[in-house]
Amino acid sequence: MPVKVVVGTQWGDEGKGKYIDILAKDSDYIVRFSGGNNAGHTIVLKDKKYALHLLPSGIFHEGKICLIGNGTVIDPKVLINEIKNINSEGYKTDNLFISDRAHVIMPYHILMDELQEKFRGDNCIGTTKRGIGPAYVDKADRYGIRICDLIEEDVFVEKVKLNLQFKNEILTKVFNVSPLSLDEIISEYLSYAKYLKGFVRDTSEIVFKALKNNKNVLFEGAQAMFLDMDFGTYPYVTSSNPIGGNVCIGGGIGPIYVDQVFGVLKAYTSRVGEGPFPTEQNNSTGDMIRDLGSEYGTTTGRPRRCGWLDLVMIKFASRVNGLTALAINHIDTLGKLGKIKLCIAYELDGKRIEEFPASLKKLSKCKPIYEDFDGWETDKTKVKTYEDLDENAKKYLRRIEEIVGIKVKLVGIGKDREDTISVY
Q: Which residues are catalytic?
């Protein structure tokens, strides 16, 4: 009963979508288990770029079953537009199913997200303002509306009434903005319910039956380790747990089924939003990495902060996620820099440390300890196997394996699906 899990090991945007798309070829089911449309996976097929925010990245493979699990929060408007967009490109979605237990992002979640971020002022977190955090808050606070509620009109109407009694009090008396209209929300969302009803299933049961029938299941993470609520750079994190362990909760399976966990990383580090970033290069080097790697957010378009690869982070991610393999992107990009640095440890108050601090005060004081490497050239027309890589690139990859203690199994040398080397 092989279950593969793909997770991000940095602050997101590592290129997980590409490897999910590759691994989906040998999978029967592809399951998204956390997050909302604050995430974005970019897949390049025949030089055409597709940005997915809620749909599992296996949607482009004919005959694969794609599931949006109970651990996600769903903006139905965004999901419907995404379905229609890929249908217009000739891709089918009759293999897509949505968990009846997933929670729904409502208009007041989006508005509250924006108002709260504005209220924080200089202490803003840098959210995407798409309502993800407030939706998870309502889930924990027992005010949430699930997909199964959305498609039952009487239940949905009663839950929206209850919510608006509370939310409108906050909106008008705390934030001094106009109340939201009950009738408008009900009319809009019931139209979404009508469209989505045919996709709704108990996805946990679907996965369980698949595993009992020895089908290959691939779980797709959104965001990444250092955006995790518990293990990330809190409070500059997302509102869910995008780490490997949450596959069991967000996907509805037992831990006995998990077989392999792929940790995806870039050959350097990037970040969107606020918070400490020990290896950040807020200089011409960082600008060069950003330009060479096209480091702008899939969902927001925001320029990403860029810096050298931080193996303190990757070791921590490996430990917490139980990684069995690494998948590295942008080897071709990094090699163009000529002189490259790799962070292998930190210096904190004059002492060498090799663990990632929980305290942001301590993290902000950490100074990277670097090793230096020479750059390399990567000609995609000539590099077809690991052996074809420049010796300097192989030296860099071997050092990553030595420090982290996990083998590199996949290496990205370009944006397209075909620009990937398997290492066995």
A: 13, 41
Q: Burial letters for 80-89: b for 16+ Cβ neighbours within 10 Å, e otherwise?
A: bebbeebeee
Using CA atoms of 424, 255, 3, 218 in order, give the dihedral in degrees to the nearest 10.
-110
Distance CA 337, CA 289 (A): 8
Amino acid at site 230? D
Residue 254 clears pLDDT 80, i.e. is over it: yes
Treating both helix axes as pointing N-terminal to C-terminal, what angle do 107-120 and 132-140 enclose, rounded to 10 degrees? 110
**What pTM did the predictor assign?**
0.91
Going by pLDDT thresholds of 50, 70 and 90, the confidence category of residue 211 is very high
Which spans in 240-352 are helix H?
247-251, 284-293, 311-321, 331-335
Calculate helix-pair angle for 391-404, 311-321, nearest 10 degrees.
50
Sign of CA dihedral 209, 210, 211, 212: positive
Strands 217-220, 29-32: pairing kind: parallel
Average pLDDT over the chain reads: 93
pLDDT per residue as tens digits for the range 118-133: 888 877 777 788 999 9
How confident is the model over 257-277, as pLDDT tens digits? Answer: 999 999 999 999 999 878 999
**Whole-Å CA distances, 212 to 62, 63, 69, 95, 205:** 22, 19, 18, 20, 11
Cis peptide upstream of residue 242 (ω within 30 degrees of 0): no
